Structures are given as structure tokens and as C-alpha cells.
Amino acid sequence: MLLALGGSIALAGRVAPANDLRRPEGPSTERAAPSLPAPEPTRLGINLFGLATFNRQQVFSNLILQSEWFSSSGEGWSAFPAAQLDAQGWVRFLEPGQTAPRPIVLPPAPFRRVAVRCGYEGRGRIEAGGVARIGERMDHGFMMDLAPTGGEDEGAWIELVETDPSDPVRRIDCRLADRPDNERFSPEFLSFTKQFRIIRFLDWQRTNDNGVARWSERTLPQSATQVGPAGASIEDMVDLANQSGADPWFLMPYQADAAYVRAFARLVHDRIDPARTVHVELGNEVWNSMFDAARQARREGVALGLGNGDPMRAQMLRYARKVREAMQIWTDVFSDRRERLVRVAATQNAWPELATIILEDGDTLRWIDAIATAPYIWVKLDGIGVRDIDQVFAMGPAAIDASLGDALKHRALAVRHGKAYLAYEGGQHFVTPDLELARKLQRDPRMTDLYKNYLTQWESRIGGDMVLYASTAPIGSYGAWGLQEYAGQPLDQAPKMLAVQRFLAARR
Question: Rounded to an integer, what is the distance from CA 502 to the centroid of its chain?
Fold first, then answer.
């Protein structure tokens, strides 16, 4: 199935992005760095992983909102036909011999047997599978027993086996029996997000899919799922920021038209706590050719005759134009509290010339407040095996110095143009298809020291906003991006999360 994981989404997770794409060899066009002001206090933010159940963090109290329907005829699951769903995403009817399984997210650790109550409207019958078992049934509902053990491949699901087409089963709500009906977010998840000052919604918005954004087709809070092609509802993202006391960071779809951008901005303006500062960005890594939006920007830039025959320059100039168009709209909508809006242009950490192209094109400087990069701790793991872990950690200090050195160049560039510098993503960038190596690296206690060193140096050399990538997800062949592998993981088993919590605690 389609996995909507990391800041650089692929079909199976976040692929190695930023620092794998190094600046071409040749003379630099950078100017001498100005004398920089002292670093601002560090504010740590978090990129939230996609809402899929396999990311192992319960976000909503309703356990089914982080999945979609599948179709089954007894042998495996396939995508559920869209023609059989209503406008909100509930099953209208089943074909003969067809059932509709749907995964449910498991509650956070400590893993234990828990009681779940499920209610629904309409007429039909629901069964359950995996580590879920149906208990007592009642009118329009049932009790369900969940018995998770923490196994990496463990799962649970409900399965719609009958539904009345004249009164189909809909508005299903399955939550822990002790949770109130009107509770939207899991208390454990809120406790997690409240640690951070900024929440970036890259993967909740499914930005890297580069879909065509239609306001009439956006996800609503009452939609049957929050993981469909349109991503999570804007209302939920705003409400999470409000309840967490964090500043939200939204990404405008690259293909969004002006009407969509204005409606999005207006909804955020009217719903956000006025004390919150809203960050807004166009697309994600539009410099990065592994993403469809970046390839589209290059095609458009070349077609428009930008860049004097240089495709990369044409790509960045096209991005600069699109940034200006989107930010003019947000500026207008937030004209009554302009100080609560941060308009971001993002670029490649290892290639400062790209930022110069953006900043010096047209009147871009008028319409942005900050430039941002992703200064990852990048170590090439080709040819590295489990016996070489000491070597990897030995390379860590140099990798931090190189990445933050590039970040410092961007900070100098931002200061020269009167703008702020931010890190839209950051953290370790150890990617290997060798899962044994990946697990040993990520679980090694020295990862705590690596993060301590990284965050301390960021604070002393750069400062300002660092939005870590990312919240919670299992270790995979496409990377191990989560600060923790599952919600509720003990800190002595989550060295990255341990370092982050120590950093935060020391500054409270």
C-alpha cells in the first residue's frame, strides 16, 4: 500500500534527500560573510510523520481515522473502489462476497490488553481481526478487546462484512473505553507535541505527492479518514497547534491555485489562536529533483525561458515566482497581524548559490521573512556493516561540523538580506538498506551524544528555529527518521528522544 512517511516521501518512506545532492564542484559565488549577530535562543520544533497506522503513534482518539478502507474477497486486500464510497468516505454498499477491512492504530506503550468501545450509525455488521476481538454487541455498537504486545509487524483491524445500502454503516468511532466521546486527539500524542515550539505538517498534508489541490475536495474533520489523498483537515492541524501551544508550519501545495491558497490562509487566520505565529512555505524541497514538484518547476521554468539555458537556475527562478504569488496572498490575509506570519523560502543546505538565485530574483525579498534549509548529520553508509558502527560514530563530529558550516553560510546570506534563517528539517541522516545495521545505529547509546553535540552546536553557532525530522516511526530500509520507534517507547530505548528531552529540560 502507499506509505506516506517522511519529508521526502516515496512509496516506502522517506528517501535520502538533502545532503546526498552536493553542490557541484567549481568556484563559489559566495561573498564574504558579514559580522553576524549573536545567535537567537534555540526553539525546537518537530515534523510530524504521516498519519498511517504503521507509524505507530496514535494521534486521534478515534482509532480508525489513521487508515482507509480496503477491499477483500477472502484472499488479500486491495484498494477499495472509490465508486463505492460516499462523499465523506464511508462505504455505500458491498458487492456479493466482498468485505471492507480497515486497520486501526494501536494505543501507545506500555502495551497491555485494553477495552475499546465502538459506535456507528446505519445498519450492518462489523467483525475484527489481528490483535482485536469483538466482545459484547449492542444496538449500533460493540465492545472490542485489543491485546497488543509491541511486535513490529503487529496489527489490528475492523472489517465491514455487511451494510444496508439504504442505511449504510457510517460515522464509525472506536476509542478506548475510558475516553470521552468529544475528545479529538489522543492525550499521549498531545503530551508529545506540547514539548515542541513549532509543528511542521509536511507529511500530514501529503505535500510530496504533488497532487492537484481542489478546495471542494479537501479533507474535513468529519471525513471518514484523515489519510486520504488530500491529507489531514486544516481544522485538525490548526486545532492541534492551538491545543499544543505550538506555532504551526503549513506547506502550500505546489499546484494550488490562488483561490485555494487564499481559502487556506483565511481558514487558518480565522481559527488559529492569535497568539500563535504561523509559518508558511510553498511545496517541499522544490530544489530536489527526486520530487515531482521540483521536476515540474524545472519543466515550467525552462518552458518560460528562465535561467538563460541553465535548467537548475530556471527551476529555482520558477520557484521564486511561485513563492511570491503565494506569499502575497498570505500577506494580504494576515495584514491585521503581520507580525504573526513567517513567510519561508526553502533551499539546499549544501548549495548556498541556490538561495542567492531565489533572494535576488525580482522583489522576492519583499514577500518572504526567512530562508530555510535542512542541515542533516549526513554520513555515507555505502560499504559500512554492523562491525563498522564505531567508525560511523567517529565520523559524526565532522559530519555535524560540515552541515552546520553550510547552515552558517545560509545564516550569513539571510542576515545580509535582512532575513531570518531557519532549519525546516534536521537530525541524523543515516540511511542504509541493511536493517541490522540501521537498528544497531539508531539504538546505540552514542546516538544520544551525537544529538547532544548537534543541538548544542546549533545553539551556539546558528541559533533560532530548528524543526527536527521527525516524530515517531519504525526503523526501515529507507531511513530511521523517528525520534522514537513507537509511541510510549521508554527513553532508555530511544536515544534520540532522550537527547532532545534533556536539551529541552535544560532550557526550561
Answer: 23
